[in-house]
Amino acid sequence: MRSTAPAPVSLYGFLTPKPGHADELRKLLMDLVEPSRGHEGSLQYHLHEQEDGRFFLYEVWRSQEDLDRHNATPLLRTFMSALPEHLEGTPEAYFGTMRSPYSGGRHLT
């Protein structure tokens, strides 16, 4: 029997800091990690720093509704308003539905 639960959604991408802004962008991104992990429906939330100086953000949410709720928080709105000052160009962002079974420690339902 197939589950009728919504499939997890993922959001991932690269952010390139403006020259001289890596430290500020790193702090902004790091300040999102723990609060975001605590939001309802957060299954994975990881920040990586690439050797070329770009940041890679990887998020998995239980459902689109959970991601939408996260994106509507004051935390995210404040982050998004501060982001352009520190970014070189636009973020390289991707969004998708997770098709492989989720086997993480948190329950989907």
UniProtKB/TrEMBL annotation:
Protein name, please? Antibiotic biosynthesis monooxygenase
Q: Which InterPro entries match?
A: ABM_dom (IPR007138), AI-2_Isomerase_LsrG (IPR050744), Dimeric_a/b-barrel (IPR011008)
GO MF term list: monooxygenase activity
Q: Does the keyword Aminoacyl-tRNA synthetase apply?
A: no
Q: Which residues form the ABM domain?
A: 9-95
Which SUPFAM superfamilies does the UniProt record give?
Dimeric alpha+beta barrel
What species was this sequence derived from?
[Actinomadura] parvosata subsp. kistnae
For this protein, the record's Gene3D superfamilies field holds: 3.30.70.100
What are the alphabetically sorted keywords of the record?
Monooxygenase, Oxidoreductase
